[in-house]
Specification:
Blueprint (H helix, E strand, L loop, with lengths): L1 H44 L5 H11 L9 H29 L7 H31 L14 H12 L8 H29 L4 H32 L13 H12 L8 H14 L1
Helix pairs in contact: 1-3, 1-9, 3-4, 4-5, 4-6, 6-7, 7-9
Organism: Linum tenue
Protein name: Mitochondrial dicarboxylate/tricarboxylate transporter DTC
Membrane topology: Multi-pass membrane protein
């Protein structure tokens, strides 16, 4: 009896951490695939041009390696953000299914689980996300203002040394809101689409995953891109000669963007953003 308890304990521990481990590993693998797309997305949001012009300019002026700039920060972000996000989502949905006596969850409950998991993940992943955006945006700054971070840990240590520990969570507000919106759109619609294609329409495994990923990627992009746009602007901004920042906060950034470019400005780079999200959904 004692030996059976010893064997059960490790299994119980693995059962608890498995959603987190799977989430982190899948997120890191997906990042290796989409890092060039993510880099192009950030450059588009910073006003560098269309996807084709950004890609050709980067290739010509910076070389192939430029597309993977910030990869270490991207991997660290997934190791923190996605691990916490997907692990929390699975734990929350499992608890909700138990409370629902094993019945499938309605869409609103999946959405609530997604919102909560997104907020948890963003709180953990915000420092790495800040490092990622700054590394990706560095080449767009004037030469005198470039930070020249060599990797994610160098970026984090420099941020702490130059700006203080709390600066690691600069832009955390829109980061959390973005993650909540993305999770609500991605995870809830993905599970709902799986049920539709698999259970109602009788699709096979591959068509089900591809179809659910496409739908999920669209809704995740539509829900989260405006917040992603604001987050990028806040995280990359530099003070001017007088020490003033272009935006006082997320709301100020949103209002100035709306006034200058209208609502569609928040959806700059929408097709690229959809492509960027799709591999993450498939890995999930």
């Amino acid at each position: 009896m004692g030996e059976q308890q010893k064997q059960a304990q490790p299994l119980g521990v693995w059962h608890t951490i498995k959603p987190f481990a799977n989430g982190g590993a899948s997120g890191m693998l997906a990042t290796c695939v989409i890092q060039p797309i993510d880099m192009i997305k950030v450059r588009i949001q910073l006003g560098q041009g269309s996807a084709s012009s950004v890609a050709s300019t980067m290739l010509k002026e910076e070389g192939v390696r430029a597309f993977y700039k910030g990869l270490s920060a991207g991997l660290l972000r997934q190791a923190t953000y996605t691990t916490a996000r997907l692990g929390s989502f699975r734990m929350l949905t499992n608890k909700a299914i138990e409370a629902n006596e094993g019945k499938p969850l309605p869409l609103y409950q999946k959405a609530l689980c997604g919102l909560t998991a997104g907020a948890i993940g963003a709180c953990f992943g915000s420092p790495a996300d800040l490092a990622l955006i700054r590394m990706q945006a560095d080449a767009t700054l004037p030469a005198a203002q470039r930070r020249h971070y060599t990797n994610a840990f160098h970026a984090l240590s420099r941020i702490v040394a130059d700006e203080g520990v709390l600066a690691l969570w600069k832009g955390a507000g829109p980061t959390v809101v973005r993650a909540m919106a993305l999770n609500m759109g991605m995870l809830a619609s993905y599970d709902q689409s799986l049920e539709l294609f698999r259970d109602n329409l009788g699709f096979g495994e591959i068509p089900t995953v591809v179809g659910a990923s496409a739908i999920s990627g669209f809704f995740a992009s539509a829900c989260s891109l405006p917040f992603d746009y604001v987050k990028t602007q806040i995280q990359k901004m530099q003070p001017d000669a007088e020490g003033k920042y272009p935006y006082t906060g997320s709301l100020d950034c949103a209002m100035k963007t709306l006034k200058a470019g209208g609502p569609l400005k928040f959806y700059t780079g929408f097709p690229v953003y959809c492509v960027r999200i799709a591999p993450h959904v498939m890995m999930y």
